[in-house]
Amino acid sequence: MATHSVLVASCLLLYCFGLVNGRTNEAINGFASRYNCVAPQVGTHPEIDLKVLMNNEKDYQIVSRSFPENKFTFNICRSTVSPAGKCTSTTAVCERRRDTNIGVADYGDVATTQIEWAGEAVIMNMSGDICETDRNLRKISRIFFVCKEDAFTPVVVLKAESFYGCYVEIMFYTTVMCKGPVPPPPPSPPPPSPPAPPPPTETLYKCENDRCTVAEQGVNKTECELICVPPAEKLYKCENEKCVESSSGVNRTLCETICTQRTP
Questions:
Q1: CA 118 to CA 95: how far, in whole Å?
Q2: Beta pairing partners, 32
Q3: Beta partners for 49?
Q4: Counting Cβ atoms within 10 Å, is residue 13 exposed (0-12), middle (13-18) or buried (19+)?
Q5: Which residue in 117, 129, 177, 254 has the fewest CB atoms around it within 10 Å?
Q6: CB burial class (10 A; 0-12, 13-18, 19+) of residue 64?
Q7: How many H helices and E strands in the chain?
Q8: pLDDT in tens, 67-100
Q9: 95 vs 128: CA distance, rounded Å
Q10: Distance from the Cα of residue 50 to its chain's centroid
Q11: Containing H/E element for 261?
């Protein structure tokens, strides 16, 4: 009977653990789906999908400088693989005891994740427990993703931490960040040229009183001036005391004056 009870209890424990673990995975998958865990394209910075850095087998970890007996464990786009102590099934950045692996502080809840470009780095910001030194603040974590051409296996380095400031910053070197810049868009085509202005309306002329005047119907000014020529003045010369037409000479008035002067 005792053996049977132990077996039943073991089965229930495994079943419940499976349910909790399944729900945790559902929450993780839901987060990755809901937030996409993607740094969007900004200017020439390409879109970076950080989900490829998610590790479902083990967490990334780094030793604390302020408290060498502790370590920071974290995961990308999901909670830590082994929640314990203050680090729950939604904790993505956890400070733990190195000897017992028990969580002593939550520095980042996966649901608080915010991702942004900052220069050549992508920063993942998260917040967790209330800060012990200022209860108006929360502990925060910032993970800086930076390109490293030979970091096919990611390299993590503690950038900064502060118990009193309630923050931890981690450098995360990876080839995932080594995408080339997005080429700028092609220049816009030049605007179409405005239509050519209509040719000016030609002014027409007609000949009136030996002069070219503007008219609604007629010819251009050049043609009008060729047509509208006043008749050539007749020339005269004095013969036998009379003015007679001649191909050369003077006008009639002057001719008559000359002829009159010749009369005795």
A1: 26
A2: none
A3: 38
A4: exposed
A5: 254
A6: middle
A7: 3, 15
A8: 999 999 999 999 999 899 999 999 999 999 999 9
A9: 11
A10: 21
A11: helix 252-262
Model confidence pLDDT, tens digit, residues 96-130: 999 999 999 999 999 999 999 999 999 999 999 99
- Strand (E) or helix (H) holding 7: helix 2-35
DSSP one-letter code for 84: B
Q: Is 255 helix (H, G, I), strand (E, B) or coil?
A: helix
Residue 83 structure tokens: 């929640």
Q: How many Å apart are CA 143 and CA 76, to the nearest integer?
A: 9
Segment 214-218 mean pLDDT: 84
- What is the spatial distance between Cα 87 and Cα 104, in angstroms, rounded to a whole number? 7
Structure tokens at 221: 């000014």
Q: What would you report as the CA-atom Rg of the chain, rounded to the nearest whole angstrom?
A: 51
DSSP code for 62: E
Contact of 116 with 123, CB cutoff 8 Å = yes
Both tokens of 203, joined, read 């002014």
Hey, what are 258's tokens?
């000359």
CA distance linking residue 106 with residue 164, whole number of Å:
15
Structure tokens belonging to residue 102: 């028990």
